[in-house]
Amino acid sequence: NANETLSTLQYANRARNIRNAPTRNVDATALELQRLRSLANVLKCELIKNRFSGVNPEVERQTDSEYTNEVGILNEELAMRDDVVSYMNLIDQKAAELVGSTANVT
User: The dihedral of CA 71, 75, 79, 83: what is its sign?
Assistant: First the structure.
């Protein structure tokens, strides 16, 4: 009986020391798709800024931190211009055509 009690206490001590670390089930494909969509949005913003803002790319920025803070951020007024909207529609249309043409190849 003493052996059973000792065994039970040892088991309880081991069980008490178990630490579970919960992990989130993340689909790697969905995570990569989300990353690529975010990257596409940032690149669209940079494309619009470089093509339509009239900023001379030869001119250096004041600081690297200012440049880093501006990456992926688009001025709302610039985004609503008709020429920018039509250009982005053209890009989206071309991307859809490319997706359709690759679907036919496979």
Answer: negative
pLDDT in tens, 53-104: 765 555 555 555 666 677 878 888 888 889 999 999 999 899 889 887 766 6
Q: How far apart are CA 52 and CA 89, in angstroms?
A: 15
State the DSSP code for 60.
Answer: P
E-assigned strands of 1-106?
none
State the amino acid at position 35 in one-letter form.
Answer: R
| Non-local CB neighbours of 50 within 8 Å, separated by 6+ positions | 57
Give the C-alpha separation, 62 to 54, whole Å.
17
- Identity of residue 15: A
